[in-house]
Specification:
- The chain is an alpha+beta fold.
- Helix content is 32%, strand content 21%.
- The chain has a 5-stranded antiparallel sheet, with helices on both faces.
- Mean pLDDT is 76; it is low at 1-33.
């Protein structure tokens, strides 16, 4: 298992992610969902914006990991995700050279699926993806608008090929 996949696995975080992903109106933001007026509901961000945000996150974190720069992630992360990355940079120095080199290698999130609450209900969106390091591991990433910028605040990983559940569809009724 790579260091990137050793992210949060506690029941409390799992429960928090489940609540966050099901508590607000909207669905998965697929193009087929239609509101009562026949138009797709507008999400907090568009799919193109979500792709740009997730891609920017990958770029910054890959740069930070390569340089072991604990301040750089603060531009794209907040909360426990940022605290964990800062702690990991301290630990990386104690790892064997082979592991340190592997940690500095770029990674990406593949097969992204986005979950968008309806605009006006909240400021978060989530992505479900697999890692380029190990496609058997799935992750849910939650991005929240903090200070005008979407930052990643939660990552919930599975290991060993266990798929993540489909997100719950909720109604605003």
């Amino acid at each position: 298992m790579s260091p990137h996949t050793t992210r949060l696995r506690t029941a409390a975080i799992g429960a928090t992610a489940g609540l966050a992903l099901t508590a607000c109106g909207g669905g998965t933001g697929s193009d087929g969902d239609e509101a009562a007026d026949g138009k797709p509901p507008q999400g907090v961000v568009s799919r193109a914006e979500a792709e740009k945000i997730a891609g920017h996150y990958e770029q910054i974190i890959n740069k930070a990991n390569a340089a072991q720069d604990e301040k750089l992630p603060a531009t794209v992360e907040a909360g426990q995700v940022y605290a964990m990355d800062k702690a990991t940079y301290t630990l990386v120095k104690t790892w064997p050279d082979k592991q340190q080199k592997a940690y500095a290698e770029p990674f990406s999130y593949r097969d992204r699926q986005y979950m968008f609450p309806e605009k006006g209900t909240t400021t978060w969106f989530a992505a479900r993806a697999t890692s380029s390091e190990d496609s058997r591991n799935s992750v849910v990433l939650v991005f929240v608008k903090v200070g005008g910028t979407h930052t990643m605040v939660l990552s919930l990983w599975t290991d060993g090929g266990e798929p993540l559940s489909e997100p719950a569809s909720t109604s605003t009724a």
